[in-house]
Every structure is written in C-alpha cells, then in structure tokens.
Amino acid sequence: MLSRRSVLIAGAAFTVTGVTAARAHHGWTWAEGVLIDVTGVIKSAKLGNPHGLLTVTAKDGDWTVEVGQPWRNERAGLKDSMLAKGVTLTVRGNRTKDPKLKVIKAVRVIIDGKNYDLYPERIS
Amino acid sequence: MELLTALHDWAPVALLRGGRWSYAAVNAAHILGFALLIGAIVPLDLRLLGWRRDVPLASLTHVLLPVAITGLVIAIAAGSLLFAVRAPDYAAKPLFWVKMALVICGVVNAALLHQAAAWEQPERLADSTSAARLRFAGMMSIVVWIAVLACGRMLAFLD
How much is the average pLDDT of B128-136? Predict the structure, then answer.
C-alpha cells in the first residue's frame, strides 16, 4: 500500500542514489575511466571561468587540456603563471572517449616533479 | 573585435572570470531569471491557447506578466555579465546569436500582442481580441522561450 512513510523512504533512496551518481559523473561522462599521462610544453593557455583550457604540445601532437576553474586551480596550489606558455608539465587525467580527439581532463598536474591535485578524490 | 576584448578585459568582468562565489552567484541569478520568465509565461501561454478558459485572461495577465518581465530583466542583466566573461568566445558561436535572435522574437511577440490589446478594456480583452490572435501569440511564445532555454543550455555542448 502506498503509505506516506514508504513514499518518503523511496524518495530519500532515490535522492541519495541520484546524488551519488551525480558526484561520480558530473562533468566526466564524456571521458574514459582510466588515467593517462600527457607530457609536453604549454603552447597557449586560456584560464578563468567557466572553463580553463591549455594547449599542450606533446610528442604525438597538440592536446587540449581541461584544467579547473580558478578556485580549483588555486586550491591545488597552481598559480596562473605556472600554467603559462613555455611551461613543461605532465598532465594526468581522463581522455575523451572519442579516440580521434586529443582532449584530456586533468586530475593532476605535475610541474618540476611536484604534484598539483585538481581532483584529489579521483587520483588512484 | 576590440569592443568584445575591451568588455572581456574590463576590471569587474575580469574579477568575475577569476572569482568563485561571484561567478556562481551571477550564474544562479541567470537561472532564477529565466526560471521566473518561463514559469510565469508558460501558464499564460497555455491560457492563450485555450486551456482553463474559465480563468479570466485579464486576471492571469495581471498576475503573471509582471513576474515574467521581472524574470526577463534579471536574466538579461546576469546573462550580460556571463557573456562578458567570455565575450569573444561566445560571440564566435553561431548558436549564441540564434539564442539572441530568439529572445528578440519573444519580446517582439509579446509587445505586438500587448499593443493589439492595449486599447481594450482589460475586462473585454478575451472578447474583442480574436481567439486566433491570442492562440498564435501563445503558441509563438511557448515555442520561442523554450527554444531560448534549449539554446542556452546547448552552448556548453556545441562548438
């Protein structure tokens, strides 16, 4: 019978499931599950809301790297000057599912051997 | 274009581009604006299309139109700031200009209907202005404003 109590419980369960799923996939549904590394030199940078983007020239060509919004980069310890043209870095992140595209969403940025974690909860 | 770059580089806009809560707030305000606009205009449009004809059109207009207009003003104010943060990038997207053209269509459609009924006494609005005229305006309005919403959302998903 559809009692008020059972409706409330069902609603709560649905909400928790939705929130958990959203946390796992928000902004990542277009990306592969495994982490890969891309090492190269920053060719250009466009930082700031709503999306920060770098173009990184690696051995296999130019990659588009999604970095965080300003607050996320700051929290990771990154200054805008560290994500500038000419900087050598390694990007650890999730590549786009389309194998034709060189696009990666950064989870960690490594500069001069130091780790800068944009999404600490996603570093395996 | 220098005007777009100047807008992009303007100090308050640069602050938004680097901000966390400020940018989020402007974004939320934009959503509040179009939520009010669509939430108010769709019931009014459905009434224009003949739904719930027992409700006097003049009463519904009296309540809902000010809310819709307020929502539109908020959406445009916040939207202008959001646009400015990435002015050259948004300006380069055809979809953005499609959205702007649709906003203009929505406003013109509303203005034309208002003008057509302006000389009427409010209580005679439903009688004198032909039902077909009202239906057309109502249909245009729903289609246009929902298309605006869709275009706005799709900006993040199309190059």
Answer: 82
ipTM, two decimals, is 0.81
CA atoms within 13 A on the CB side of B140: 18
Beta strands in chain B (DSSP E): none
What burial class does residue B1 get, using C-beta atoms within 10 Å of its C-beta: 0-12 exposed, 13-18 middle, 19+ buried? exposed
Burial of B107 (C-beta count, 10 Å sphere; 0-12/13-18/19+): middle
B144 touches chain A (CB under 8 A): no
pTM for the full model?
Answer: 0.86
Are A70 and B18 an interchain contact pair (Cβ–Cβ within 8 Å)? Answer: yes
Averaged pLDDT for residues B57-62: 94
Residues of chain A found within 8 Å of residue B156, distances taken between Cβ atoms? 50
For residue A46, give the DSSP letter. E
CA-angle at B139, arms to B134 and B145, nearest 5°: 120
| Structure confidence by residue, pLDDT tens digits, B108-128 | 999 999 888 765 655 555 565
